[in-house]
Amino acid sequence: MTMNERKTIDLEQGWEFMQKGITKVKNILEGLPEQQFSSEDRIMLYTTIYNMCTQKPPHDYSQQLYEKYRESFDEYITSTVLPSLGEKHDEFMLRELVKRWANHKLMVRWLSRFFYYLDRYFIARRSLPPLNEVGLTRFRELVYQNLNGKVRDAVISLIDQEREGEQIDRSLLKNVLDIFVEIGMGQMYCYEGDFEATMLKDTAAYYSRKATSWILQDSCPDYMLKAEDCLKREKDRVSYYLHSSSEPKLLEKVQHELLSVYATQLLEKEHSGCHALLRDDKVEDLSRMFRLFSKIPRGLDPISSIFKQHVTAEGTALVKQAEDAASNKKADKRDVLGMQEQVFVRKVIELHDKYLAYVNDCFQNHSLFHKALKEAFEVFCNKGVAGSSTAELLATFCDNILKKGGSEKLSDEAIEETLEKVVKLLAYISDKDLFAEFYRKKLARRLLFDKSANDDHERSILTKLKQQCGGQFTSKMEGMVTDLTLARENQTSFEEYLSNNPNANPGIDLSVTVLTTGFWPSYKSFDLNLPAEMVKCVEVFRDFYETKTKHRKLTWIYSLGTCNLIGKFEPKTMELIVTTYQASALLLFNSSDRLSYSEIMTQLNLSDDDVVRLLHSLSGLKYKILNKEPNTKTIAPTDYFEFNSKFTNKMRRIKIPLPPVDEKKKVIEDVDKDRRYAIDASIVRTMKSRKVLGHQQLVLECVEQLGRKFKPDFKAIKKRIEDLITRDYLERDKDNPNIFRYLA
Amino acid sequence: MHKLGRGHRDKIQQFITITGASEKVALQALKASDWHLEGALDVFYSQPQIRSFTDTRHLEELYNRYKDPYSDMILADGITLLCNDLQVDPQDIVMLVVSWHMKAATMCEFSKQEFIGGLQAVGIDSLEKFRERITFMRSELKDEHKFREIYNFAFGWAKEKGQKSLALDTAIGMWQLLFAEKHWPLVDHWCQFLQARHNKAISRDTWSQLLEFARTIDPALSNYDAEGAWPYLIDEFVEYLYENGIIQKDDYSQKQ
Fold it and tell me: For this UniProt entry, which segments traverse the membrane (chain B) (predicted)?
């Protein structure tokens, strides 16, 4: 009831009271002597507003008070704030601004408390901007709008001063920039539009100026040091006083001006650019280069391409070096030539180690650089040295490591490690099938002539090859190694058989290695006319074998056999270790003392090449078991041979080597033939599923399918396609000769 | 006749001269092909119902005149006689066209069926008509479409029975004959190239693709694409042309 009897307050009277309160706030803000607000004061002010808003119309002054509230700010700003800001400049203005903004926020807080009742009903009901917002907006419209240009310029000039190394008041800048953020009231457009855009532009201009002079006066490493330093300092700047959202934009600008713009000029600086850094092994600078350029879009492309060029050049130089060495040593002995090749592979491995380390460390394992390394190695690894392909060299290299008494003397760990690296290099070789064939030939020699130094290493490299190239690649080689184990067991049971059947014993110790045809390289079989003594052996073994297995056919490869003969020479009796070929030739002289070349040839049933080779080994300078007539160095079809009963040697047991036939040509031919089948199969497989396909796609598909084994030459594919057309597997489309159809 | 314009009347006249058909047939055929002489000739020869009547008895007589005394076929001697009668050199390319019409399986041989069927199909029943027709047959080589058919026919016709490919000498002879007709400036280089570098028989694919090559690739090779599906022999021929400086290299190297 008392409420209703409350005395109506008219506007002027009420406002006068409010004004006093507001003036008091102002005085406090201006630092004038004034008493603090007591809680009664505040309650009174609030109550006045409450009363004035709750009176019955027409005495409800809500609207008027809302306006008065705003006007109070306007009045204060125009009368006090703006003049005080106007008389100050630069840093002082900034300080004043910070102070004024703080005061303003305080004032908004005070006043919005006094007028709080407006917020609760009047504003809420009419959806008007709330008191707090009205207060801040006044500052924005009257102060910020007028001054932001000046403020921004002042800030930027301070930043530039700092960039030049001067000390500045960072917290001041931080406060000023906070105004830009706060004034947006939750949105960033003031900061971004009124400050950041210009700041970025200025930054770009600043660094553009710097870069222009640095690029001329500094070396590439110095320039990169500076650039890295600048980037670091700009990043710090953001953390000190810029808004965190500016970081990527700011760094992007700096990177662009310092790096992108001068990338080519910088990387190709003649005495200190990327080439020079690689040449001089400047690992740290290269790492820095990677760090800097990895941040700019496509920045690593030129570096990886320079890296690739560099590695290619280094590798090609190795090839050339090996090539020169080979041609210089041509006149010398063959195994010296072998050494050269060995050295070459070693060097290639070292080169790979070195640059793989670069990729892993300097270039942080980046895929672009792995690719560059791979492409570079592919270039020179497929060149070949002195008529041998790298595939062959690698196979020979492995052989040297794996065979007994090879040129490499290494510990087990070192062998493992080296094999691992060879297998890695193999990835760059396009003729993997050629490697496989050479490797198989050499493996066969190691296994059959008991030259393999260590079974574990043999198996370990096969495991590595399997991982790298797939099971198909190594299945034959694995088969070979297993075959040999089985052959040993077989030999044991043969010996058992002989002791159980004494009358079957041929009187000669015989050891037979039974192998699976498909796994091993192909050899000539049944070519030699065996001496009668040995024919018996063969028969005995055949009988034994038939007791063990049925439906298996034994094919004898005499060219791989070894015999131990007792030679009764006049000075002393000696044991001769010879091949089956040589033994057969020598045994001929048991029945006749003197034989002509052609007699030997017909009795042995061998080709000219073979006969010349083995007679040369038996009548040569070192082991002259046969005397030749006439006594010349070369073997002619008209020569006669006689047993040299005077022959002797200081050893009791001698091994007479038979130089192996150069198998290179045959290996290459075999591989070529296999490739033809592989291409045919790939074409037919593709066409069978696609039915109709354009020439280009077909060729690409084949290359794709066969790439794991070898790199087919386009011409070879074309020839195979034409051959398949002739064989009616394919036809050309009647209207478009570029399209093939599968004929099922 | 009076209703027709001068141009049409000329065409009818030409048609009659070429085919020996009646005026009525000529009119019919020309109308059917919208007054294209070539088209009308095609219509005339491909549709038996409007072909002029041929007397099988005459054909039988003609066949017997050339028939080999010991087998039921016309062999080399018979063909020589036929050529004499037609006043044509046996080496003349027109004999290839004749064989093509007869769908002859092999060179220098006509079976009875080929001979009679072939002549019937083109409406010849006497030596006179045959002789008259020779000019037209020669002109058929000018027709690109027919030339291609004849060209592709020539491969099977010229190769040895039972072989898949064509002996190089024969192939070269045929090419010189055929490309003398359809001018291709590189033919001599092609033949030299084959003798120098290839010296093996020619596959059907290479044979037929060569015509495509001659037809579509200009003699300066400006539109040759090394990535295309040309048989490798043709690719190698192109390399040979550049290597021997027969075609200037500059344009080629840009493409490489």
Answer: none
Q: Which of A71-80, A109-118, A660-669, A709-718 has the lowest mean pLDDT?
A: A660-669
What's the pLDDT at A175? Answer: 87
Could you report the per-residue pLDDT of B110-137, keeping only the tens digit for each?
888 888 888 877 777 778 888 888 888 8
H or E element: which one contains A627?
strand A626-629
Encoding tokens for residue B33? Answer: 């092909």
Q: What is the 3-state secondary structure (H, E, C) of A573-624?
A: EEEEEEEHHHHHHHHHHHHCCEEEHHHHHHHHCCCHHHHHHHHHHHHCCCCC
- Alpha carbon dihedral B118, B124, B130, B136, in 10-degree steps, equals -80
If DSSP codes are grouped into helix, strand and coil, which group holds residue A280?
coil
Q: With respect to CATH, is domain A561-655 assigned 3.30.230.130?
A: yes
Query: For residue A682, what pLDDT band results from cuts at 50, 70 and 90?
Result: very high
Model pLDDT, residue A680: 92
| Interface test mutation site (partner A, options B197, B205, B227, max chain A beta carbons within 10 A) | B205
Task: Work out the average pLDDT over A526-530.
Answer: 77
Question: Which chain B residue is nearest to residue A717, measuring alpha carbons?
Answer: B232
Q: Which CATH superfamily is domain A189-297 in?
A: Cullin Repeats (1.20.1310.10)
CA distance A73 to A105: 11
Tell me the pLDDT band of A308, cut-offs 50, 70 and 90. Answer: very high
**Helix%, strand%, coil% for chain A, nearest 5:** 70, 5, 25
SS3 A18: helix
User: Is A664-742 the same fold as A561-655?
Assistant: no
pLDDT of residue A687: 92
Residue in A closest to B229 by C-alpha: A738
Q: With CB atoms and an 8 Å threshold, state whether B205 touches A695.
A: no
CB atoms within 10 A of CB A651: 9
Q: Which domains does chain B have, with CATH numbers?
A: 6-50 (1.10.8), 56-139 (1.10.238.10), 144-255 (1.10.238.200)
- Residue of A717, A725, A734 to mutate, interface with B, max B Cβ within 10 Å: A725
- Least reliable range by pLDDT among A273-287, A641-655, B39-53: B39-53
Provide the shortest C-alpha distance from residue B233 to chain A (in Å): 9
Domain boundaries, chain A: 11-153, 189-297, 302-486, 561-655, 664-742
Complex ipTM = 0.70
> CA A179, CA A172: separation in Å to the nearest integer?
11
Query: A11-153 falls under which CATH superfamily?
Result: Cullin Repeats (1.20.1310.10)
Q: What is the mean pLDDT of residues B150-162?
A: 85
Helix (H, G, I), strand (E, B) or coil at B110: strand
Q: How far is CA B205 from the centre of its chain?
A: 18
Percent above pLDDT 90 for chain A = 5
CA atoms of A133 and A510, how far apart (whole Å): 109
H/E element holding A742? strand A739-742
Hey, which CATH number is domain A302-486, 3.30.70.270, 1.10.10.10, 1.10.1040.10, 1.20.1310.10?
1.20.1310.10
Domain covering A664-742 in this structure, CATH number: 1.10.10.10
Query: In chain B, where do the E strands start and end?
Result: 73-74, 110-111
